[in-house]
Amino acid sequence: MTSYASFHARSISPDSRAAFWEEQARLIDWETPFDQVLEYDKPPFARWFVGGRTNICHNALDRHLPSRGTQNALIWVSTETGQERVYTYDELSAEVNRMAASLQSLGIVRGERVLIYMPMVPEALFAMLACTRLGAIHSVVFGGFASVNLAARIDDARPKVIVSADAGSRNGKVVPYKPLLDEGIALAQHKPSSVLLVDRGLAPMPRVAGRDVDYAPLREQHLDAFVPCEWMESSDPSYVLYTSGTTGKPKGVQRDTGGYAVALASSMQHIFCAKPGDTMFCASDIGWVVGHSYIVYAPLLAGIATVMYEGTPIRPDGGIWWRIVEKYKVTQLFTAPTAIRVLKKQDPAYLTQYDLSSLRLIFLAGEPLDEPTARWLTEGVGKPVVDNYWQTETGWPILGMARGVEVLPGKLGSPGKPVYGYDVKLVNEATGEDCGPNEKGVLAIEGPMPPGCLSTLWGDDERFVKTYWQTVPGRMLYSSFDWGVRDEDGYYFILGRTDDVINVAGHRLGSREIEESIASHPAVAEVAVIGVQDALKGQVAMAFAVLRRPEQAETADARLALEGDVMKTVDKQLGAVARPARVFFVSMLPKTRSGKLLRRAIQAICEGRETGDLITLEDPAALEQVRDALKGA
Ligand code: ATP
Ligand code: MG
């Protein structure tokens, strides 16, 4: 058995990486073999598998049909509407062909953009695969995003067709999409020529004559359609996906075709340990990169079944995910820490009520995994919990544990080691020099980035270079804009985002370090720390905490005592400079729809600024709580 260390070394060393990735490239079918594994003569632009022609949809569906036509491909569960549907590879392939023929009838050809603004329904996945089949570039926008967010993405991607639906549903409440969509199109400069609509019968859906087309009758016309796959150059774009916008204006991440397919297929083997007959349940949303990669493409590339879930983790009750694991014999579960924190508040009996024996591994990504959450899950379910760190930009994990290569012990609080293909560096922000063990630095990647990572920003090569490759002093490295530290054993820890730095009287403090300290106080369940402008000190830290037992802060006296106590905790652990000027108690924190803490929203309110484009909040009421808390101060 190869050691992971040598596997990783081989994947990045200039002498061996071509041979390494050539082997990985055998995991997919090529219509025309590539003649060059990597072209890197115009750094930072890397082109993988040059000269090769392939198609992602062919690799996700067609090539499996002879051997797995009757095997499950897509398991759709909606606890919002009480529906469940299972599609075999044959059935899924038929649906994708119907969708592809329908899109073709609306003028979609290779290179054209299709914006997908959909709830978590099978048609969304059909549309994505239909696009890659046709060589069209999809851009999935998280369903239910406000019109302004949608309009910005329509103008950037300039789609010919938008695929949408009457409504989504969240927590049992119907969210009509069509009014948001019409408003988004009205706000945008660019107008799509057609809007293809899936009518779920959830909300009224007025049609715009000459533009709106119903999918059901169009599908009927194409029941027996077979649309041949368009053979794409390996570096042709497959899709554009906008980043979450946690730190600013979203960036249109452009993904290639061949590199992405190879990276995902390879990750399923080496990181996600997929075997024939497996079922992966990735409880994310197709609007996020995790959904693109591990709900849609990777499981199908690997020829296994994927579970697509519309609903919350606790409706109808906190056992629903475990019930799905039992019923469909899920082998890999993939979700975000935020969901696990929600489950942790549920009756622990749910964990023992269901047969979870099929489950082999649980993967978490998207935000820092705190120790108590990791411990609860590992102990409660009794399966390894694998944290993995990555970004929309990379499309697949940067840090993680490649358990399919070698099972190394994990460390709580660490997503692990650099994934093969990634030459990860930690650099001093001011000098650009490499950091030593236990020295905090910016996590950066030496080019070329491995297959699967962004090839550029959509329509803006210059912004791609400037944004990502020119911020480390004296070196052309890709910056992740996250802080990290590496221990003596080579395990990395993510310490937060580089723009979440608070500068108190010349001391640079990370929001996350202070948050971790406050969260170690037994009364605190969750906390956000931000820097607020201060005439004297430049900035001061302010904390907004959610208590485990809210009644602990019912009276002003109790709040004051607890605030003092929390401050003492920080004093003891980090020193007085890190002590927040105030600790406020709220019952929820502002988060993005993908569950990430939106510190800049809190900061804007604290500094009396508009929260601007922050309408992508999970629950706008969280902002009111911040405002209310400040009123008393
Ligand atoms: P934007 O770039 O538009 O501000 P975003 O960074 O939130 O948005 P994503 O690409 O969805 O958009 O998120 C990637 C970021 O999420 C990482 O850079 C990191 O900050 C955080 N992250 C992801 N996985 C982990 C993890 N396992 N541990 C810690 N942080 C993580
Ligand atoms: Mg980011």
Automatic annotation (TrEMBL):
Superkingdom to which the source organism belongs: Bacteria
Database matches in PROSITE patterns: AMP_BINDING
Gene Ontology molecular functions: ATP binding; propionate-CoA ligase activity
Residue ranges occupied by any AMP-binding enzyme C-terminal domain in the UniProt entry: 513-596
Domain Acetyl-coenzyme A synthetase N-terminal as annotated: residue spans: 4-60
Gene3D superfamilies, alphabetized: 3.30.300.30, N-terminal domain of ligase-like (3.40.50.12780)
Keywords in alphabetical order: ATP-binding, Ligase, Nucleotide-binding
Pfam families according to UniProt: ACAS_N, AMP-binding, AMP-binding_C
InterPro entries in alphabetical order: ACAS_N (IPR032387), AMP-bd_C (IPR025110), AMP-bd_C_sf (IPR045851), AMP-binding_CS (IPR020845), AMP-dep_synth/lig_dom (IPR000873), ANL_N_sf (IPR042099), Propion_PrpE (IPR012694)
SUPFAM superfamilies: Acetyl-CoA synthetase-like
Gene Ontology biological-process annotations: propionate catabolic process, 2-methylcitrate cycle
Annotated ranges, domain AMP-dependent synthetase/ligase: 71-448
Matching PANTHER family: ACYL-COA SYNTHETASE (PTHR43347), ACYL-COA SYNTHETASE SHORT-CHAIN FAMILY MEMBER 3, MITOCHONDRIAL (PTHR43347:SF3)
Family classification: Belongs to the ATP-dependent AMP-binding enzyme family.
Protein name (database record): Propionate--CoA ligase
Native organism: Pandoraea faecigallinarum
